[in-house]
Amino acid sequence: MHTNTVLNAQSAANYLRLSKSSLAKLRLSGAGPAYCKLGRRVVYRAADLEAWLESRRRISTSEQ
């Protein structure tokens, strides 16, 4: 996927293999990937999804 690609909330959830409601809860708590509001629409940039995933990489279960 190209990093300039913009995904709606459902597509972003599918990409992350999360439910749409889980992604919404992460957005509400501020713990999810960066997003953009376009009027009432929520969209995600593919680069932001990748960065969020990368920030959660761990090597050991003892890492914080």
Features:
alpha+beta, 17% strand, 64 residues, globular
Description:
The protein has 64 residues and is of the alpha+beta class. The protein has a 3-stranded antiparallel sheet. The protein is globular. The chain has 3 helices and 3 strands. The chain has helices spanning 9-16, 20-29, 46-55; strands spanning 6-8, 36-38, 41-45.
Uncertain regions spanning at least 5 consecutive residues: none
Percent in strands: 15-25%
Shape verdict: globular
Work out the oligomeric state of the chains in this entry.
single chain
Overall mean pLDDT stands at 93
Alpha-carbon distance between the termini? Answer: 29 Å
SSE arrangement, N to C: EHHEEH
* Tally of helical runs: 3
| Share in helix | 40-55%
Question: What number of domains?
Answer: 1
Give me the secondary-structure category: alpha+beta
Give the strand order, joined by hyphens, for the main sheet: 1-3-2
- Rounded to the nearest angstrom, the radius of gyration is 12 Å
Q: Largest beta sheet, briefly?
A: 3 strands, antiparallel
Number of strands: 3
